[in-house]
Amino acid sequence: MSEYTAKDYKKGQPRWCPGCGDHFFLASLHKAMAEIGVAPHETAVISGIGCSSRLPYYMNTYAMQTIHGRAAAISTGFKVANPAISVWQISGDGDGLAIGGNHFIHAIRRNVDINMILLNNRIYGLTKGQYSPTSPRGFVSKSSPYGTVEDPFNPAELCFGARGHFFARAVATDAAGTVEILKAAHAHKGASVCEILQNCVIFNDGTHDSVYSKEGRARNAIYLEHGRPMRFGENNEFGLVQEGFGLKVVKIGENGITEKDLLVHDAHCEDNTLHLKLALMQGPDFPIALGVIRDVDAPTYDQAVHAQIDEIKTQKPYHNFEELLYTNDIWEVKE
User: Fold this and answer.
1) What are phi and psi of 143, to 5 degrees?
2) Does the pLDDT value for residue 299 go beyond 80?
3) Which residues pair with 292 in a beta bridge?
4) In the predicted model, what is the mean pLDDT of residues 96-115?
5) Could you tell me which of 241, 108, 230 has the C-alpha nearest to residue 162?
6) E strand or H helix at 224, and its extent?
7) CA 280, CA 36: separation in Å to the nearest integer?
8) What secondary structure does DSSP assign to 47-97, as a single string?
9) Angle 71-81/301-315 helices, nearest 10 degrees?
10) pLDDT tens for each residue of 137-168
11) Dihedral angle of Cα 33, 37, 42, 47, to the nearest 10 degrees
12) pTM greater than 0.85
């Protein structure tokens, strides 16, 4: 396998606002692709419409900015037609979960082997600050001047509800954490969803402040690792245990609690009950879960389609158009 650097995947000069989370994510994507080692000409990056959907312009790969909300549909068609290509779909929370919500859940349900990146800043940035499907209830924006009266989508909940087999989360400013989940998403065969928490510095700055800095993540986040106890805190002093049907935060050393009492993360568990509880945690009572939350093997749509075609071909008396013409009755026309 050839060795690549992040520079091999770079193209153009990004045109986002200074400080936008898209800059951080783009750098992490370039680095992750270099570490994955799939050649640029064997990689495709496909997006819809929105600030984040400009990202394909800055990729030295096959790259397409397509139609609003249709990135998952076009990525599906691309992957089925080109099964050897590594396909990355880039969407924002508006593009991916509003107009593109139907395509989002069905690509996951079908388990198409594409890497679905959801850049979540809880706002419509390109159209200048309307609330999005992930904006919290009461959020004041240009389209909700008195506060939205809607409850938001939780991307993990949508993913699991659509029978998703891979879900991970990272913060845009956490390069190491982002690179790790992107590499895990590529290694997973099937639809992988990576939620990237990022700020829109113009219209929704600070929306992920609790975990946007390294110090904030140390206090307010938990990095989940398969096979490892669920510990977190600035000094790793807290942990998660099961209490009834829910979760509970405990402090190591208090009330006789030791590491052996903590839950151990099993990302490969078929049952997604605990995965969902972990993904739905939020402050101030619970840490925000980062890392690979769910990673379960399952048959993929694109492989199944090609396997079905190959099987049907063996049962047919013809294998091309010319043979088809001579398969049925033939009439000879004479003058």
Assistant:
1) -100, 0
2) yes
3) 168
4) 97
5) 108
6) strand 221-224
7) 29
8) E-SSSGGGGGGGBSSEEEE--TT-HHHHHHHHHHH-TTSEEEEEEEHHIII
9) 40
10) 999 999 999 999 999 999 999 999 999 999 99
11) -10
12) yes
